[in-house]
Amino acid sequence: MSAADDAILDELIIESKEHLENIEPNLLALEKEGGQVSPEIINTIFRAIHSIKGGFGFYGLKNIQGLSHAMESVLMQVRDGKMAITPAMTDALLVGVDKLRTMLDDVMASETCSIEAECDRLLQLLQGGELPAPPVAEKSGQPVPAADSVDRFGLTAEQICGRMRNGQHLYHLAIHCPADLGDRQRNGAQLLTSLAEIGDIIAADPPQADIAALTGEEEQPATLAILYATVLDHDFLASTIGIAGSQCVTATITAHGKPAQESSAGLPPESGETAAALRKTKKQEKAETIRVKVSLLNNLMALAGELVLGRNQIKQALNRKISSALASTAALKRFEAGLANSRKVLHSSIQSDPRLKDENRKNDRLLATVDREFGQILGNFRYSLGFNLIDMPGISGLMQNVDLVTSKLQNNIMNTRMQPIDAVFSKFPRIIRDMAKKLGKEIQLTVEGSEVELDKSVIETLGDPLTHLIRNCADHGIETPAVRMSAGKTSFGKILLRAHHEAGMVNIDIIDDGAGLDLERIVEKAISTGCITREEAAMLSRQEAMALILTPGLSTARVVSDVSGRGVGMDVVRTNIEKLGGEVVIDSTPGKGTRINLKLPLTLAIIPSLIISAGGRTFAVPQVNMEELVRIRARDIDDKIEEIQHKPVLRLRNKLLPLIRLDETLGMERTFVDSKGVRRPDKRQGILDRRGITADSGEENPSETEKELPDDRRQVPTRRVRSANALNILVLKLGTDRYGLIVERLFDNEEIVVKPLSSYFSNCPFYCGATIMGDGRVAMILDAAGLAEAAGLRFADALKKEGALQAERYQRETMREAQSLLLFRNGTSELFAVNLAMVARIEKISSSAIEQIGELEYITHEGSSMRILRLHHFLPVQVPAAIPETFYVIIPKLVTDPLGIVASRIVDIIATSEEINRKTIRGPGIIGSLSLAEGLIVVLNLYSLFEAADPSRARAEVEHGDLRGLKVLLAEDTGFFRTVIQNYLESVGCEVAVAKDGMEAWGMLGQGSYDLLVTDIVMPGLDGIELTERVRDAATFRHMPVIALTSLMGESDRTRILAAGVDAYETKLDREHLLQTIGRVMSARSDRPAVPAGGR
Amino acid sequence: MEKQFTTFYIDEMHCGIDILLVKEINRQLEISEVAGAPVFIRGLLNLRGQIITVIDIGVRLGFAARQPTPRSRCIVLKTTAELALLPQSADIEEDTTSEMVGLLVDRIGDMITVDDREIQPPPANFANIDGRYLSGVIQRETDLLVIPKIGETLGCEKNIG
């Protein structure tokens, strides 16, 4: 096969693949439509299959031709209304499409594979069809009108096409006389009328007038030849006119412009130029496109990048030129003024010179000479400056124009790489359909935003992860119809696949209304596979627990199906998405469904990055990896940075952030720039090392600059105090992990063009590419994951596993985090606080959204109405002067029927371990006050606040029975919780004794008598579990009821807690539940006082 | 058969490479060094919007790293794809790489035409250069022209270290 043939074949393959892409959705659409088959769709499919058949038939690729022929036959039956679309048919056709696709992938091998199974399936359809498929080919054996008979009409292709209407077929009819006229009780005129009713007579021989005159009984002319155009199909036409099928022959128009005819079993009419002519109108509807090689686009992109670079350099040069010209002009002006001044002085001195008084003429001559000389000096000066003064009129306007065009050009070229995400989305209806069938589920897939465009490379990488997610959704997410019905849902599950733009990223949501994620099972599985330890599991937030399914080797599918559930995949999804610079967020409500959100950059080729430097070299850090920037002043380094096993960590909002130095990680010599701007090696061992540079000067041959160092030493005892020694830390994120990267300097944010990295750098994991900076130099793009790897950061280990010290520290950290306070104002100077753990969300509301009913105010929140309250209505606080137009509503959680709290401004979120002062500020709705740097803060007690606002709530307390007089020992090491829980308990009349940790509680137990022990689990020294165990082992109070408190929402530690012998456990801040639990435990105990619940 | 060589100097050693391998010779030497890269990688160079990897061929041949001087040049080589397009591609014995690579040299010498029969196999352990990086030497009236094996010196797959 020649090269030219190869090229044509390649083209044909590409085209055919496109056809197949179109066929699939159309087939699915057909199936959906069921009975009412749209001829438009059928024709589209038919044409597509047909052109595949025709094309490959030409190349003699019999398998492709054969299979497409079989498919075409079935479609023909459907098109002609002889068969109805059935699921079995769609299946068979889809299987055919798949097979064709496989064969197209390797055309040369297509001849060796078997198409028998697919063809058989199609044939069976044909044989089992409602109407036996009229094997058109059989008729070819019967007499056919002579091949040249069409010629006798003497018409050109244009004339024929001109008389035909779109969608019509061209037939050559041979009507025999008198068999088809007189014998059938009709005359010529009647025949013409019936023909005219169902189509158009293009030409007739003899002419129509003569035919109309026939009575039908004549022997001559023996045959009437009619060129006839109609939408009817061959067999239908024959039976309608009442002639034999063989008398009606499909005609085509030859390239010479004369109608040619062919056997009805041969190629259908639309082939060659006729097809082109007939489909002309169709083609024009499509947007004009041409195929361009990707490499060409890449070249264009590189050139555009270069152009941008050139533009930037010209701009810089021009700016320099302009500013120097301005300076010259100013200099010239000053010179002119000076010269004029000198001239004036000279003139006056000449005029006033007594020696020249009488000689007027000499005087004038002298003055003229001075003027001339001065004029010459000015002229010379002007000339010498001349080159610098040349004004280029309109140059800045031109520059602006070039600037704009260049940017537009770059954008447009970038857009050429953009493709609608439909390229990926379009395959999902099929996948879902097949899976639903296989799994016996009913699934309705809705696709939105398939027109959203993404870079080609992103789309290519997106296919696999998205497919995996969609399959997961159908497999694990959506339940079987029976399960769904029993859960009160519709029998069919819904999956919404949606793409939309948001904040410069493309968001893809996959939302289902299925079973949701079973968090407990995920956590259990993670523990059993060793991904995390039980202790770590207890610390997990809901979000973190859900993110566990993205870790390798974790699949919660109960049955490993061939569809999914092998535990590979979700981690691959995450890896792929993160490789694209995107992120995966999972949110799930048990029983309601799951929402997976992917955020992706529009393009990989240009990414927003922060430009930084270290060791004098410039680097780019992609913004997607960046969480925040932290600058630590030299004098704060001691407070904020600690070392754990010689590794520096930063205390950032009470979380420990491991730190690495960029220069060190890259294996560069550690340097710093001294006060004189000279870069010198840094000899300190760690960030916390106090040694100043001066300490080293003795070890080296003191150079010129180093000799001066002792001066520095006197002025600056440790050089860390200088502002230049502040630490710039980039907080980088890797999934849920964070680390700090210490860099030397921070520059601008820039959109950089990513260039792939040469394979020479394959052993440098810390780079993910290179880019060309505005100044033309090359800078490396840092890879957050690679850096962490190169620095040997092990996130889980660094903070959790390395020794008891760190474990304790970590526990302290997480507990502290739990007592973060949300600070807000109520339109006055007073500061209020609620525990952040009790805040569900904060809504921004405009005052017009408030609805007033009686004296109460309501807003609509999440579809239902919620009462809101203003603090000054219920607390003894200042009344705000005016109600702002927009304000915030704090929506609490852990409260039944929460009320929204109005705030004029959200001030901050602070973390504090300060004890709440319960004496200074007291009252219903208030726990106490805190005196912090921010000022005096009123800490709210939401429960009593709500009771004050809604007195009917107080009555609900009856549920937990009468707890008055109950002696409770509360062991809790965190001051904040201690105060809050004590407050809860005292509010219902308990007598509360508090212990600051397990040991203290143990001691107090021995001294006093208590009805109930309420203990925190995580405490330093003796923790809640050990305390409970001691209580259960003790002779005297082994039957004392124990209620454990956890600050965690997860309940995975439940078994361990229960095993220790507690009666119940409760979440720390949930007052209602705590009191109910106490009530329940106490009443159970009073029924059977001697039996310890649980026990060991 | 006659062959043309572009010659250059590494320290005082006179080297030559088949002129067909050379794409251009560049005097712009704003090379950005890359921390953590193999030692024979000098850095990256922006060649009209394309980033090319600059290799210190001296380091490969056992010399110290080049110190850039005003006479330093970067010999940009053709890629394998570009070589394949040449009409003489069948005659080229050397191989380059699939990516854009430049050689950092101390200065450029004359263009030299020699008959390929004059090329002799390199003497064992010649000038302490690893034999696998040498293709041959040419004895000339004034000096010895060393022909490095470009494919081997570039070999990025095997020799990263």
Explain what this protein looks like in three dimensions:
- By secondary structure, chain A is an alpha+beta fold.
- Chain A contains 37 helices and 41 strands.
- Chain A folds into 7 domains: 3-133, Four Helix Bundle (Hemerythrin (Met), subunit A) (Up-down Bundle); 137-275, no CATH class; 294-416; 420-601, 2-Layer Sandwich (Heat Shock Protein 90), CATH 3.30.565; 606-797, no CATH class; 819-950, CheA-289, Domain 4 (OB fold (Dihydrolipoamide Acetyltransferase, E2P), Beta Barrel), CATH 2.40.50; 959-1087, Rossmann fold (3-Layer(aba) Sandwich), CATH 3.40.50.
- Helix content of chain A is 41%, strand content 22%.
- In chain A, helix 2 packs antiparallel against helix 3 and helix 12 (294-352) runs antiparallel to helix 13.
- Chain A is flat and about 130 Å long.
- Chain A starts with a helix and ends in a 9-residue tail after the last helix.
- Mean pLDDT of chain A is 74; it is low at 129-150, 255-286, 557-567, 690-723, 797-818 and 1088-1096.
- Chain B has a single domain, classed as Beta Barrel (OB fold (Dihydrolipoamide Acetyltransferase, E2P)).
- Chain B is globular, with a radius of gyration of 15 Å.
- Chain A binds chain B through residues 302-303, 305-306, 309, 615, 617-618, 663, 666-668, 755, 758-764, 766-767, 770, 772, 776-780, 790, and chain B through 30, 32-38, 41, 43-46, 48-51, 53, 55, 99, 101, 156-157, 160.
